[in-house]
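Quick one before lunch.
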Amino acid sequence: MSSEETQLNLSQPSGGLNEFDPEIAAVLVDEYNRQTDKLEMIASENIVSPRVMEVVGSVLTNKYAEGYPKRRYYGGCKFVDVAEDLARERAKELFSAKWANVQPHSGSQANMGAYLALLDPFSGEDGKKVPIMGLHLNHGGHLTHGSPVNFSGRLFDVHAYTLDEKTGRIDMAEVARMAREIKPRLIVTGASAYPRFWDFDKFREIADEVGAYLLADIAHIAGQVAVKLHPDPIPVCHVVTTTTHKTLRGPRGGMILSSYEAGEIMLQGMPKPKTVPEAIDSYVFPGIQGGPLMHVIAGKAVAFKEALQPSFKTYIERVLENARVLADELMKRGFNLVSSGTDNHLMLVDLSNKGLTGKASEKALERSGITANKNMVPGDKQSPFVTSGVRLGTPALTTRGMGIDEMKQIAEWMDRALSDVEDKELHKSIRAEVKEMASGFPHFQEM
Ligand SMILES: Cc1ncc(COP(=O)(O)O)c(C=O)c1O
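Model of the pyridoxal-5'-phosphate complex:
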């Protein structure tokens, strides 16, 4: 039955979505057309399956379930408990973790829950803020890794490490030097815009030397980590946080994982002695969140089951191959890539040698039907609103079935579109070619 035909409860106003709220109905149609007609190259986006969408738009959205399975503050949780248990078990299987919390509403809340569970922010020397380290926002880190405008930068004494501007890679010698000097209590690894592998073993060595917890935020690379196409942080880091909606291809949300079983690490300074998993569970709820989004948690369970299938590994292999091909094709055309390539699903194009800004390039690409985002590059002379770079990713295009030929074509379109960022006629003609190609790659195959 379509929503137009659905008989609504007497207490609800009548009419399906199109009839009752044509403005929002139009947003859905417009957004669907935007997503399908254009090339979605924002590295943090993907396309969920109709199965995940069905669950996220289901009756589970009606349910309050504060607490954890079998320890709820509400009645009627028998069935949502099944969903959350499945999500936790599948997450553990997928990542070979011993413990999982699938309740964080987002990646930011996963980080907040984990940081606050591990550290009391004001327990530094003489009641000062506790020192932590994370990758600088302008070098690819995320807001929650210590930006002054974020809770992380406001609550903690943040010391940001950076990339070596010559190599575009994390300068591990500098990380070690800083850690010895600062003595952070937490080192955050992971990024929003870093195209290279993380050396979690080296980070752990440094963390152990200075007595810090090590946290990996794998929001971007969770898909690769799940299929072991990225060095695995789970056995190495004390805590791993992630989003579920990027390379992992699930509904929007967050998750926290650990390979430490209850009892393996005891946290200091808690009212009652707590293990890391116990502390994180209680910081996520009731610490920073209320009722979990049960429809999203069930959607996560479905997405994890999808990621446990052999086809997900093939998907991630294609994401990585597409990224490598696109990176090579852009470099052949004289584009500079930060670190001269990529090990993952994204790349950062440094446009300064072309005399272009990220802002103007993002607009020219958007007019041409290619959606990407401007991004700071190491040593950027432009402001964060202008930038000298553009970040590109392949997860969403790969979900649509695009491969090597399409990546070569996209590099050619980008080269043309950026040859004159003011030429609207040029962009219009590329837009038509993009639309034609995109129409051959629908969001969903027949199931
Ligand atoms: C590395 C990293 N961590 C955390 C987040 C935050 O995720 P959310 O937007 O779900 O809060 C992001 C989002 O882009 C991210 O890239």
